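S1.2 Input.
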Amino acid sequence: MANQVEDDPIVVVAYDARWTERFERLALELRDALAEQALRIDHIGSTSVFGLAAKPNVDLQISVERLDAGSPYRAGLESIGYAFFPDDDPAHHFFRVPGTPRIAHLHVRQAGGAWERKHLLFRDYLRARPAERDAYGALELELEQRFRNDRRACTNAKSPMIAEMLHLAEAWAAEIGWAP
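S1.3 Output.
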């Protein structure tokens, strides 16, 4: 898969309260398509954090009992227009509606797994810590300029900050008794 996509640039915008409404609409549509296959549907990513500048596509995490290629959730997602995009990590299945503009990213993960927990923890930590939220937002804006047409490089460039914040988030979670 090519990293450079000229017709799908990275764009970061100011926080928009309508992202929560978009999540709620998408979650209802997904719940209808997946029924009991979706154990949880959570709003994750930058659009889920009040006040955080973000790429304006809503990230949804769908937690399922089993994460494998033959699971019935895949047919349910495809029936409403989402396409599977292979990932290097077998613990993460990624779906989105093909083409641009990107409206939503679906991250399917196993319920109770490390990936599910990590994304909920990161979201809740940024929601609780405005200084860290703002630092992360500043990095997103900087990376938008540096990697406008290279999503993989942008993701790789923010990985060190995310790792450091997750380390701090784990201590925060232990201190306050946080759980998903």
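S1.4 Remarks. The mean pLDDT is 92.
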